[in-house]
Amino acid sequence: MEGNAEAESSHEAAESPEMLLWERSRVLREENTAARGGEWGDWLIVLAERLRRDREEQATRLARSESSPEMLEFCKLRDYTESTHTGEKRKVTRLRFYLHDFIGGDSPTVWAVASCNLTDVLPSKFGKFLVLDNLVTSGPGLDSPEVGRMQGTVGQADLHERALVMVLNLVFTKGEYEGSTLSILGRNPLTHEVREVSIVGGTAAFRMATGYILTSTYFKDPAGVCNVYEYDAVVYHTDRNVLLSHRR
Questions:
Q1: Distance in angstroms (rounded) separating the CA atoms of residues 235 and 208
Q2: Contact, 148 vs 171, CB < 8 A?
Q3: How far apart are the C-alpha atoms of 105 and 108, rounded to whole Å?
Q4: In the CATH hierarchy, which fold is given to the domain comprising 74-247?
Q5: What is the DSSP string of 229-240?
Q6: What distances in angstroms separate CA 109 from CA 96, 118, 186, one per listed residue?
Q7: Beta strands at 195-203 and 181-189: parallel, antiparallel or unpaired
Q8: Which of 144, 121, 141, 206 is nearest to 171 (CA)?
Q9: Sequence ranges of the domains in the chain
Q10: DSSP state of 206
C-alpha cells in the first residue's frame, strides 16, 4: 500500500504545471528549428520558475502557526470572505472568564446525583454523574463582576483517568451579552494542564455559534470548598446587529 502511494505521488509530481512547462521548453530548445521556438522555450522557463516560487510561498504561508498575528489576520479575512459569499456577516469574539466550582462548604453549587458500582472502586471515579449551577465572573476573585452562570451536567466517563464528559450552557446574566447563551460539549481530562472543549451552539448575541474553549485550573482549594477554573473562548457567530436590521 505504501509503495503504491509513493508511486502515485511521484506521478503527480511529474505532472505538476511547472514540470510540464520545463519539459515543453526542453523540447523546443532541442528542436530549435526556428527562432520563435527558442523564444517560446525561454518564456516557458520564466513561467515555470514563477509557478515554483508561488507554490513555495503558498506552502510557507500554510505552515505558519495559527497563533501568529499574521494567521489571526488571515482568519479574520477568511471569516469575512465566507460571510460575504453566503450573504451573512459573521463575527469572531474572544472571551476570558472564571468559573467558581463550589464542591463543598455550606452552599455547594455542584451536586452528585448518580453513580455506579465502579465509582468507589476505580481511581477515575467512573460512572459519577453531577449537575451544577456555578458562578462565572470576569476575574478570578469571588468579588469580581458577575458574568453569568455555568449550568448543566458532567460525568466521569473514562475507566482509566479522571476525565469529564461535559454538557453545559454558559448563561450570560450581566454585561454586554446579558440574555445570551453558549452551549459547550466535550471531553475534559482533568489531569491535563490545558484542556479543550467545543462550543456547539448559542443564542441571542451568539446565534449559530461554533468555536472552542481552552480551560485550565487557576486555583485548587486544599480545603475542598471552591476550585477556580480559567476559560478562554473563541466564538464564531452571526452578527446580531445585522440580524436586527433585517427585521426592520
A1: 10
A2: yes
A3: 6
A4: AOC barrel-like (2.40.480)
A5: EEEEEEEEEE-H
A6: 21, 25, 21
A7: antiparallel
A8: 206
A9: 2-62, 74-247
A10: G
Q: Which grid coordinates are listed for 175?
A: 454585561
Residue 18: how many CA atoms within 13 Å on its side-chain side? 12
Tell me the pLDDT tens digit for each residue of 199-245: 999 999 999 999 999 999 999 999 999 999 999 999 999 986 655 54
Residue 243: HSE in the Cβ half-sphere, 13 Å Cα cutoff:
12
- Going 11 to 15 to 19 to 22, the CA torsion angle's sign is positive
* HSE-up (13 A, CA, CB side) for residue 78: 8
User: Beta partners for 226?
Assistant: 102
Confidence of residue 28 (pLDDT cuts 50, 70, 90): low
CB 116 within 8 A of CB 129: no
Gap between the Cα atoms of 197 and 208, Å rounded? 17
Instruction: Quote the strand ranges of the chain, DSSP E.
Output: 90-102, 110-114, 129-137, 146-156, 163-172, 181-189, 195-203, 210-219, 226-238
Per the DSSP assignment, residues forming a β-bridge with 156 are 164
Coil, strand, or helix at residue 67? coil
pLDDT at 217: 96
Do the beta carbons of residue 41 and residue 29 sit within 8 Å? yes
Predicted structure pTM score:
0.64
Provide the terminal-to-terminal Cα distance of the chain, rounded to the nearest Å.
60
Distance CA 104, CA 115 (A): 18
- Written as nine digits, the cell of 39 is 523564444
